[in-house]
């Protein structure tokens, strides 16, 4: 079995309302199949959905100003972060670790100032990344006649490891969590704690297949057909640990 | 650029003192190159290095017995875990999150009862996984005449995400952390926090390329030649966040 990751190359600059699914379909190879997976960096998804904010239009409130002063951040960015955040998990040493409205735990609620179209613009996470993935899947299917699974990805830091790795914040048509619990191990012993975050693993490697300094948001992933489903399924929500199971609040 | 992952298939059962590098070299394709990477599941590395413990020979101490009772675990396993552990980060709800002697933060200090050769045997992490990777690289080079980079991997849980993903606990000849900080982004804007945990991303996807219930510890990774170095380099140590930067102790 070979697993492969191929960047679909540079897509045109995406703006609010643009047909991102159409752009992806155009960039996809002619032999695109319903067994394939396409991993899409969330920034173009967010931009197409209009999930950007101009900082000039943000009025930071009292809490944002206080936190910004404490952490050495732009109070307008902190205001935008707080608006997308249901809980501050940590706010220290210049870092804001947030639980987002989606239940994701990440720095700055995923709000990102890099790769925005304008210098004073920040890009937010999609409102519902699983729904974004489903819409992209439908759109690609309409354009190509085949419905590859879709991942919407973002780069997350890790609590105890240096550097970032992409994870799947949205998914449609891929079993995000490949759950082997209860199945027998190689020697017949039960695998007691083996549930593989397959969508995150695919997202992480997809990020290696594109140049970080070029506009290559979409990566074709082949070899995961055993995890591709006709139904869109529960999406990447399956990978979000519920707050009540969080040992690190 | 295509990134690909190919399982090298079933290796013979590995026992203490066995020539794992020789087995990997034999399983590798004839066109193996010094631009390639081979990701190896740590369990076979640990077994070859004799890093296994028979539970019948373990005498749990007072602390291990108390923790085991509290968490519903085998006191002998807890004794083995504590011996490899410099700090208990969390011990609750049946879970032991440890900082290991290597500075890795993971469940049970990486001590694993699944896939051991005997029912009462547990497999520990290698004493120095970067050194293990270097030795394997030297051994494969001796057998094949080319020195692919080597990753030693383990499956880690994540604080806020469900499921496990493989990470690189050891590395030789691969730039584990692809650090773009300070380089210009696509629009000339500085990427302020982009250091990609490339070795972890490769480890995670390598795990998708092999069947979890079969003996396929080694996966050939192609397409990362830009990160492969002639020198063994700093290894996966570059990915361990120092305790003083840990916000979640």
Proportion of strand residues of chain A: 15-25%
Q: What is the CATH T-level topology of the largest domain in chain A?
A: 60s Ribosomal Protein L30, Chain: A
Going across the biggest sheet of chain A, name each strand in turn: 1-12-2-8-9
Distance between the termini of chain A: 40 Å
For the CA atoms, what is the radius of gyration of chain A? 19 Å
Give the tally of structural domains of chain A. Answer: 2
Structure summary, number of beta strands of chain A: 12
Helix-strand string of chain A: EHEHEHHEEEEHEEEEHE
So how many helices of chain A?
A: 6
Q: Report the mean per-residue pLDDT of chain A as an integer.
A: 92
Task: Walk me through what this model shows.
2 copies of one chain form a homodimer. Chain A is an alpha+beta fold. Chain A has 2 domains: 1-50 and 126-239, 60s Ribosomal Protein L30, Chain: A (2-Layer Sandwich); 52-125, CofE-like domain (CofE-like fold). In chain A, 24% of the residues lie in helices and 24% in strands. Chain A contains 6 helices and 12 strands. Chain A has helices spanning 20-27, 42-48, 62-71, 75-83, 129-144, 198-208; strands at 2-7, 37-41, 52-54, 85-92, 95-100, 105-107, 121-123, 149-157, 164-172, 178-179, 195-196, 218-222. In chain A, the strands form 4 sheets. In chain A, strands 1-12-2-8-9 form a 5-stranded mixed sheet. In chain A, strands 4-5-6 form a 3-stranded antiparallel sheet. In chain A, helix 1 (20-27) packs across helix 5 (129-144) and helix 3 (62-71) packs across helix 4 (75-83). The model of chain A has no long low-confidence stretch (mean pLDDT 92). Strand 1 of chain A pairs antiparallel with strand 1 (2-7) of chain B.
